[in-house]
Amino acid sequence: MWKKAVLNFALKSLNKYLVSKISYDLLRVYVEGAVMRLEKLVEIITDKNPDDKTQLKELWDNEKENLFDNTLETAAEIVLDKVEDQELAAFVAALILDLRKEQDDNPAKITPVSIA
To answer: How many domains does the chain have?
Structure first.
C-alpha cells in the first residue's frame, strides 16, 4: 500500500512541478499522456490482483492503437514541417495518414509492433 502512495505522490509531484510548467501545448499534452499511462501502471502493479501479466497485456492492447495513430500523426507533422516542397510534403503526409484508414479497413494487414 505504501508503494502505491509513494508512486502516486511522485506522479502528482511530476504533474505539479514539471508537466504543468510546459508552455508548449502539444508537448504538454504528450507528456500528460505519458504520466497517465504511468498512473495506470502503478494501479496494475500495486493492486491486489496477482495477475499483473494479463492486466499489463490488456493495458498494452488498449494503448497500442493510440500509439499507432499518434506515430502516424507525428510522422505526417514532421514531413509537413521538414520537407521544403510543400506539395510533396502534403502528398507524403496524406499517404502516411492513409495507413491509419487502411488499418481501420483491414486490421490484419497493418499491425503495430507487438512485444510479447
So the answer is: 2
Are 35 and 19 within 8 A, CB to CB? yes
Residues 81 and 102 in one domain: yes
Q: Are 107 and 100 in contact (CB under 8 A)?
A: no
Are 64 and 114 in contact by the 8 Å Cβ rule? The answer is yes
pLDDT digits (tens, 9 = 90+) for 72-112: 999 999 999 999 999 999 999 999 999 877 766 665 555 55
Distance in angstroms (rounded) separating the CA atoms of residues 8 and 4:
6
- What range defines the domain where residue 72 resides? 51-116
pLDDT in tens, 21-32: 999 998 999 899
pTM of the predicted model as reported, rounded to 2 decimal places = 0.65
Report CA Rg, the chain.
18
